[in-house]
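Progress against Task 2.4 (sequence-to-structure conversion) is shown through the following example record, which the project officer requested during the mid-term review.
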Amino acid sequence: MRAWDARRGRGGRLSYAVLALGLLVWPVAEVAPYLADTVDGRSTFPTLADFRTEREVRRWVCDQAAVTRDGGAGRVILLPGPEPYSSAALRPVVPDFRGHRWLCWAFRVGDRPVTLVVSVRSGAGRGAGTTHVQVERQFLAGDHVLRLDLGDLAPQTRPAPLDLADVRYVQLFVVRTPEPVTLDVSRVWLEP
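Structure tokens generated for the chain above:
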């Protein structure tokens, strides 16, 4: 309103107009990368992550971990720390996994074997809680493709059945790692 106040000089009105424009543009600039990633994520579904853009890193929630984009892969570093678990959780842009049976991860393990736990978490259908299932596997150094049968995992979830219409996270974690665990994740995807 001050920008249109005729009592102010031209410079004062211009300053207020620039400020008002900045206040309008700032929130849009803040959410634009998330909106662009949402469009990308929907267009590439059933690929959940392939690290084609730097924006995909925003899909990951880390606890004693870091996820970065390194070339054509995502570098996941699970770090030692005071908490018992180090985890990197991927929030799918499209949470509806119905019609897909396989959750697949393509990744490379560094120079030593590692025991990883993969967790699939869905809405519990009531309240804010989640229901989950976990699979623990050991991987030697080198390239791997992990394929998890969602149909077989669904009955094993707790405290309620896995809701494939509302998958909140697919998560990698390690338990009490004494040193950093580095994984290069090239792709996470679903198959029918």
